[in-house]
Amino acid sequence: MNTHAVFRAMRALRRLGCEVLRFNFRGVGKSAGALGEGPGELDDGRAALAWLRNRSPALPLISGGFSFGSWVGMTLGVETKVEGLLGLGVPFASYDLSRVDRSSLPKAFVLADHDEFTAVPAIEAAVARMHDPKRLWIVEGTTHLFTERLDAYEETVAEAGRWLLESIGLQ
pLDDT confidence of 22, banded at 50, 70, 90? Predict the structure, then answer.
């Protein structure tokens, strides 16, 4: 929740007028519980999305996250029928994104050109296989955490956010 990538993404999306919910999965930071090996984190995400829907029922939801959290957020977004999906630093080689692949929801991806978990050709191939609408941004000169070019990353997340808002008819 407090990594530079998550904080900068939150800041970019708030500048666009979005409400943003950041949270730690169970067992991370000061949160209760123990790591849930995937199913537990999906439950955490379900609870977070339900809380957000209850808090702001009239607002459209974009679900996503960073790294492992992108798999959780995007998977749940398809499951709960949000309006759009945002994947930041998606580790395509590590998780099953087949539900996201088949989804007709707008999907925006921001990845690093030197990501340690998935090489750019594999990233491009994974996104190309997905149903439209979708869009991919690659931040040059960065690794998975984007620490080498955080300003460029933040601006790219803002571009991806604007595209998602336009895709769901909000801009």
Answer: confident
3-class DSSP string for the chain: CCCHHHHHHHHHHHHCCCCCCCCCCCCCCCCCCCCCCCHHHHHHHHHHHHHHHHHCCCCCCEEEEECHHHHHHHHHHHHHCCCEEEEECCCCCCCCCHHHHHCCCCEEEEEECCCCCCCHHHHHHHHHHCCCCEEEEEECCCCCCCHHHHHHHHHHHHHHHHHHHHHCCCC
Segments forming the whole domain that contains residue 65: 4-167
State pLDDT tens for residues 30-63.
666 666 667 888 998 999 999 999 998 988 999 9
Residue 25 CA to residue 44 CA, distance in Å, equals 6
**Total domain count, the chain:** 1
Q: What is the CATH number of the domain that holds 75?
A: 3.40.50.1820
Look up residue 121 and give its two tokens. 């050709």
CB atoms within 10 A of CB 46: 14
Average pLDDT over residues 86-102: 95
